[in-house]
Amino acid sequence: TLGTQTDYRDGETQTDPYSPEYVVLGGSVPELLTLATLTWGRGLPAGLDEVEMIERAREKRAWEATLPPYNDVSQIMKRRKMMDAMEREEWAFREQEIEKLQAFRLKVLKKLLQKQQNNQNELDTKYLDAHWQNCQKAKEEKFKKIQYDCALRLRKLIAKSKNVMGKLERRDIIKDYTDFASQTYVPLSRIGFFPDNHSERFVVKSFYHLNTFAGLHELEASLPDSVTQIKIKPPEPKYPITGYIRRSARLEVALAQVHQ
Fold first, then answer.
1. Coil, strand or helix at 23
2. How, if at all, do strands 43-44 and 39-40 pair?
3. Which residues form a coiled coil (predicted)?
4. Residue 97 — φ and ψ, nearest 5°?
5. Average pLDDT in the 181-197 region?
6. Given phi > 0 = left and psi -120 to 50 = alpha, else beta, which region is 231?
């Protein structure tokens, strides 16, 4: 009622069929010995070609049995004619085998050529697709550049159309400071302003080495006591605490809170 499952198929562990030893009796020629050249994977298991070979071997043995004997001088010409006819049949059969082999090789060659052609077509298609993608990318970049140049020229024309007569206008300081997009708040780098310039002036420069513990200790020792030791004095009440707060004092506290 139980079964086991292995990691390998049975076909992977199957070996070649066992061929036992044999002994031939004297004076006998077993037909099975004619298949001794066939081994597993080379003719075995027998297919259509092997069956045809076996049948031809049987026909040839039957034909050899019909040949006249060697010692009969009167049958020499007949024996020679029969052997010539058999030889012609063998050559014709051999030619048919060669034609079959050539046809099979031609079929295999056609398949290989077709496969090579398909691979080449696939590579050509990939190359054309990649080339088309590159052309599309170049076209999009060129189109974006044309749009950018068009917008730039339009802005120049609009700015030029605002002052057709070329009159000089005095700076309106109020307008510059009320418009947060003006040059006062957001200066442009194309007119010579670079926000990152002179950034080192904001770096803290100290006489003490602040990157080391000894420098920090020296800085702390140089500070006055009023910085390191803070003394907090409790606030004194403005009015004496008698358990009763005047209305004017309450009003003054409320006004102070509202002011804050």
1. coil
2. parallel
3. none
4. -65, -40
5. 74
6. beta
Cβ(86)–Cβ(63) under 8 Å?
yes
Q: Which of 80-94, 112-126, 186-200, 232-246 has the highest mean pLDDT?
A: 112-126
52, two tokens: 């045809």
Q: Is the peptide bond before 45 cis (omega within 30 degrees of 0)?
A: yes
DSSP string, 47-63: -HHHHHHHHHHHHHHHH
For the segment 80-133, what is each residue's pLDDT rounded down to a tens digit? 888 888 899 889 989 999 999 999 999 999 999 999 999 999 999 999 999 999
Per-residue pLDDT tens for 165-174? 777 778 888 9
Tokens at 4, concatenated: 């086991």
Tokens standing for 81?
């004619």
CA 259 to chain CA centroid, Å, is 68
Measure CA 99 to chain center: 48
pLDDT at 10: 66
3-state secondary structure of 172: coil
**Buried (b) or exposed (e) across 199-237, using 16+ Cβ within 10 A?**
eeeeeeeeeeeeeeeeeeeeeeeeeeeeeeeeeeeeeee
Report the sign of the C-alpha dihedral through residues 149, 150, 155, 156, in that order.
positive
| Integer Cα distance of 97 and 100 in angstroms | 5
Q: Dig out the tokens for 15 from the structure.
A: 């070996």
Its sign, for the CA torsion 64, 66, 72, 73, is negative
Q: The tokens of 232 are what? A: 């907090």
pLDDT of 142 reads: 96
Q: How many angstroms separate the CA atoms of 228 and 81, rounded?
A: 135
